[in-house]
Design a protein that fits this description.
- By secondary structure, the protein is an alpha/beta fold.
- The protein has two domains: 7-97 and 209-261, Rossmann fold, CATH 3.40.50; 101-206, Rossmann fold.
- Helix content is 43%, strand content 16%.
- The strands form two sheets. The chain has a six-stranded parallel β-sheet with strand order 4-3-1-2-9-10, with helices on both faces.
- α1 (17-26) crosses α10 and α2 crosses α3.
Length: 264
Amino acid sequence: MACEAPIGVFDSGVGGLSVLGEIRRQLPQESLLYVADSGHVPYGEKSREYILARCRAVAAFLLEQQAKALVIACNTATVAAIAELREQYPLLPIVGLEPAIKPAAALTRCGVIGVLATTGTLASARYALLRDQFAGNAHVIAQACPGLVECVERGELHSASTRALLKRYVQPLLEGGCDTVVLGCTHYPFLRELLAELLPPEVQLTDSGAAVARQLERRLVAGELCARGPARPARFWSSGDPAALKPLLPLLWGEAAEVTALAR
């Protein structure tokens, strides 16, 4: 596979742009493809079978675009589909996301960790395994956040309604005395500024974006797939309305770009 081939990244919507940004920072020489499966957002409230079918369809599309590696930029989709996709494409580097419980356990000083995530992620066996394996002696307070993904999808990063929703979700974490909060969905890093206003300054936030970029780099190095660059402009698709994603790119990606409809 050509080293200059692009990397395919996808999520149920715009949340994976937070991971795409970390990949761009870590691997600026790599060309990037991004699919927002916005016609089926949010994954976190869907069945495993539904999510798996969507992941298979999007992965097949990205491979048609000659992607040399895939990044599942979604905790829920990783739980639902990464094992099957790796079985289907055994020679393809496929990197997924997991809630950053291990680094949170290393960061906490008081031994109480809060986790903000989707209903699907928190209900998964994989999340329970990560918590049991990496939390150590720390007490973990998990909070499902219905509706928060949709706020980010609308670009409402500072609205009164988003603030009210987020305040309701962080309240149990604060009452439980946590000093470290895991952002367990790729949409949530876009709410860091709002979270900083709602949380005491001593509360630390952690997410998995940078770790995913590092793991992707390790996989590319191991497979001798690293590009020399220069990177081509990132390309974007949406299974929802491309006109809805396009104005969000300057806000969430940092620059404008064309968005093509994904009809599958």
